[in-house]
Design goal:
The complex is a heterodimer of chains A (94) and B (493). By secondary structure, chain A is an all-alpha fold. Chain A has a domain at 5-43: Histone, subunit A (Orthogonal Bundle). Chain A has three helices and no strands. In chain A, α1 packs across α2. Chain A is flat and about 55 Å long. Chain B has helices at residues 8-16, 22-40, 48-63, 105-112, 155-162, 179-185, 219-229, 248-251, 273-288, 304-319, 338-349, 352-365, 371-391, 417-422, 428-433, 462-476; strands at 43-46, 74-78, 116-121, 141-142, 145-149, 168-173, 188-191, 211-216, 259-263, 292-296, 397-401, 437-444, 450-457. Chain B has a single domain (3-299, 386-479), classed as Amidase signature (AS) enzymes, CATH 3.90.1300.10. The mean pLDDT of chain B is 96. Chain B has an eleven-stranded mixed beta sheet, sandwiched between helices. By secondary structure, chain B is α/β, with parallel strands linked by helices. In chain B, β12 (437-444) and β13 form a beta hairpin. In chain B, 38% of the residues lie in helices and 14% in strands. Classes of the chains: A mainly alpha (94), B alpha/beta (493). Chains A and B meet through α1 and α2 of A and α10, α11, α12, α13 and α14 of B.
């Protein structure tokens, strides 16, 4: 397998990460080794095997739809790097 | 024995009988921190002032003969748990300024039980790592040999308990992150069954694998702390609504009649001879105490690391999408558009290992690769679970090493992520199957580093793990109270 620098850049863009050229080069080599190792999984025939996403046999967890106390607006906003009295402030979207 | 290296049980009795006050105990631990923290570097945020208020409250309750199971006991918390009004960084620059507006459920529970929270301890960034070297702020040292790693990702938790800088701690375990540092630092660590402890307020890494658990000086303390932590929580839909047993009653129940399975794949090449020798000695002790020893097979063990790093990274790439500079944490000054601000923020805020796993996870989930990676890994996960079901048909508890080697030297593996991943081979499957797993000290290497014995049980069989671990602890009688790397630093009282 070959993970090219272009693939790393493409995936980094999907993940909203800007990588420097040094990081792209290092990451390509490391990903190549890691995914090369992961290819080991293909030694196993898993046709017909159900995928597990949850280790315990839990079904939907429902609770009463009761109104409980929630964080006051000012408290919920307090950690926002930029906010006004009503909302988080972000760079212009449109 | 100094105050700072006693157990919860001993100190609980001393506090209840007023031989010592909570404020005096706190001062003893703070003095110890002053003496050794320059070497150990376990704490990211020490809250001496807040702890003093909590200790004074505890003393008021104790004076009236009241107070919960942890009343007046100073604990440290892995910096992955939200603590109201107390900075919570996850070892990451992206959360450096974050002060949570609420407490995690387990934090509420230990506070209700009277615990005194000393502060927040170091961890690999977002719990991704096996050596604690991925922390953006400080890298704790192994209290037994300060040129060695303390393990990870709950390294600060294990190091603080081993060093006498906290009586006990709470860590989190996604692929071994409680058991492995506990093993490397000579303390007792438990990863409970998935769903046993609420994760509300735990910053998520890999949601189908993460679990919180106690790190303590001995087995009885571990049972006691789990007692306080365990139970259903409506705020965590993965927590299980099932009665919590009285764990303390199980601790001294012994191993007579128990069948202990040795997974033959866990004793394969790569296991350091001195680790194997210590583990085999503990197994003989268990046999001598009346356990039956059988060999079992977990044939898909060699695939667990590959499956884990796809599943955990995929879940991480999704969970860590929330760190975007909008609602909390660091925001880059650069970026005229929202997209540019996101990318600049995340690139500045995340460290190398976190970026690596986000990229692996994003790649594995990206269009055209999902079936080859995520689906394949999730199917292999089913095979690993089947292995355990077959093993538990013939034995009660699985016994092995926690890690293939004792702690390694700082810096030794930082440039080789794959080798670091492979060091987790003995602990990862437990999380993939959602089982309880425990580390209890069983010996030392020739260079004086602790070695841990791993116990794995079927779902919700924590009581059996405590019983087996206690026999090992009692029969071996190791003295773990004075880590050699801190000799002469003192702070004792």
């Amino acid at each position: 397998m070959q993970i090219t620098p272009d693939q790393v850049r493409y995936v980094a863009a999907l993940a909203r990460l800007d990588l420097s050229e040094t990081e792209v080069a290092a990451m390509s080599g490391q990903l190549d080794r890691i995914l090369g190792y992961v290819a080991k999984l293909n030694e196993l025939d898993t046709s017909g095997v159900t995928a597990t996403t949850h280790a315990l046999n839990i079904h939907n967890a429902f609770r009463e739809d009761a109104v409980a106390e929630s964080l006051p607006q000012a408290v919920a906003l307090a950690n926002g790097p930029r906010h006004n009295e009503a909302a988080f402030v972000v760079p212009k979207v449109i | 024995m100094e105050l700072y290296n006693r157990t919860i049980q001993e100190l609980g009795n001393m506090l209840a009988s007023r031989q010592v006050s909570s404020v005096e105990l706190l001062q003893a631990v703070l003095d110890r921190i002053t003496a050794v923290e320059g070497t150990v570097q376990a704490y990211l945020t020490l809250d001496a002032e807040g702890a003093r208020h909590q200790a004074e409250n505890a003393d008021r309750l104790l004076a009236k003969g009241e107070g919960g199971m942890l009343c007046g006991i100073p604990l440290s918390l892995k910096d992955v748990l939200c603590t109201k009004g107390l900075r919570t960084t996850c070892g990451s620059k992206i959360l450096e300024p974050f002060v949570p507006p609420y407490n995690a459920t387990v934090v509420e529970k230990i506070k209700d039980a009277g615990a005194v929270i000393l502060g927040k301890v170091s961890m690999d960034e977002f719990a991704m790592g096996s050596s604690n070297e991925n922390c953006a702020f400080s890298v704790p040292r192994n209290p037994w040999r300060t040129d060695c790693v303390c393990g990870g990702s709950s390294g600060g938790s294990a190091a603080s308990v081993a060093a006498g800088e906290a009586v006990a701690s709470i860590g989190s375990d996604t692929g071994g992150s409680i058991r492995q540092p506990a093993s490397h630092c000579g303390v007792v660590g438990l990863k409970p069954t998935y769903g046993r402890v609420s994760r509300y307020g735990l910053v998520a890494y890999a949601s189908s694998l993460d679990q919180l658990g106690p790190i303590t000086r001995n087995v009885a303390d571990n049972a006691l702390l789990l007692q306080v932590m365990a139970g259903h929580d409506q705020r965590d839909s993965t927590s299980v609504d099932r009665p919590v047993p009285h764990y303390g009653s199980a601790v001294e129940s012994g191993v007579k009649g128990l069948r202990l399975g040795l997974p033959k794949e866990y004793f394969a090449k790569g296991l350091a001879p001195e680790v194997e020798a210590a583990v085999r000695q503990a197994i003989e002790v268990l046999r001598g105490a009346g356990a039956e020893i059988v060999t079992v097979s977990l044939p898909h063990t060699e695939y667990c690391v590959a499956a884990y790093y796809i599943i955990a990274s995929a879940e991480a790439s999704s969970n860590l999408a929330r760190f975007d500079g909008v609602r909390y944490g660091h925001r880059a000054q650069e970026g005229d558009t929202l997209q540019a601000m996101y990318s600049a923020t995340r690139s500045q805020g995340f460290g190398d290992e976190v970026k690596r796993r986000i990229i692996i996870g994003t790649y594995a989930l990206s269009s055209g690769y999902y079936d080859a990676y995520y689906k394949k890994a999730s199917q292999v996960r089913s095979l690993i679970i089947d292995d355990y079901q077959q093993a538990f048909a013939t034995c009660d508890v699985l016994v092995s090493a926690v890690a293939p080697t004792p702690a390694w030297r700082l810096g030794e593996m930082v440039d080789d992520p794959l080798s670091m991943y492979l060091s987790d081979i003995l602990t990862i499957s437990t999380n993939l199957a959602g089982l309880p797993g425990m580390s209890v000290p069983c010996g030392f290497s020739s260079t004086g580093l602790p070695i841990g014995l791993q116990l794995q049980g079927a779902h919700f069989q924590e009581e059996r793990l405590f019983a087996v671990a206690r026999v090992v602890e009692r029969e071996l009688g190791l003295d773990l109270s004075q880590p050699a790397g801190l000799t002469g630093l003192g702070g004792g009282r």
